[in-house]
Every structure is written in C-alpha cells, then in structure tokens.
Amino acid sequence: MSENCIFCKIIKKEINSNIVYEDNNVIGFKDLNPVSPTHVLFIPKKHIQSIDHIELEDSSIISAILLGISKYAKQIGISENGYRVVSNIGKFGGQTVLHLHFHLLGGRAHFWPPG
Ligand code: AMP
Ligand code: ZN
Fold this sequence. Notes:
It is a single chain. The chain has helices at residues 6-11, 59-76, 90-93, and strands at residues 19-22, 26-30, 38-44, 84-86, 102-106. The protein is α+β, with helices and mostly antiparallel strands. Helix content is 24%, strand content 21%. Strand 1 and strand 2 (26-30) form a beta hairpin. The relative contact order is 0.22. The protein has a five-stranded antiparallel β-sheet, with helices on one face. It has a single domain, classed as HIT family, subunit A. Zinc ion (ZN) binds at residues 2, 5, 7-8, 47, 99. Adenosine monophosphate binds next to loops.
C-alpha cells in the first residue's frame, strides 16, 4: 500500500470502481475513460510502481496478471479476434498513475505504431 495511490485505494475499496476480475494477487477493473470497447486495467494488489520496479520476488504476481488477462479475454470472447496489452512506464511512456497496470484493449482493431 502506498499513501495517496489511487489504485491502492481502489484495491482497498476506498473509492469505487467496476471490478471485473479478481484473484489473490490481482484485480482487473474498467478504465474510467475507455479508449476501446473493452478497456480493463489489470493491477497487482501489491503496490509496485511500474515494470521498471519489478523485483525477481514479484515473478509470480506478474505471471498472475498475464494469466488473468488471458483468462478474462477468453471469458468475454475477444481472444479470437485478438487484443492489445499495454503498460506505460514513466514520463516518456506516458504513465499517469504510478501503480503498475496493464491496459487490456479489445473489441476493435488497434494499429501500429502507437502515438
Ligand atoms: P496510464 O496513463 O498508463 O498511467 O493509465 C492510467 C489509466 O488509469 C488511464 O487510462 C485512466 O483513465 C485510468 N484511471 C485513472 N483513475 C481511474 C479510476 N479511478 N478508475 C478507473 N480508471 C482510472
Ligand atoms: Zn498503489
């Protein structure tokens, strides 16, 4: 837990969110400002700032996030067409919330390169 971290507050249910996935280590909740028909943020319950701050001991948590994404994508039926997973890191990556999160974007085609 990190004081004043908005995603830690979502985990502790101190602020409302639309949680669509949960296991021991991970929650997935709908992004407040979706950019795709499916836009869900998958985050560790442990406060980790970004991919750049992952330690070896966090390996099982990171696996759980990716497995959760894949499981949820199958559950809602977006696997066949495919989807995108993005994690922004730091200033140049465009990260605005400093709690590790993976955007799951689906339900439309996504293009490359991103902006
Ligand atoms: P990033 O820019 O990669 O750090 O992504 C942060 C994401 O968190 C943005 O897509 C925001 O729309 C989303 N976001 C911020 N606050 C909330 C919230 N309270 N509930 C759901 N999504 C949020
Ligand atoms: Zn946090």
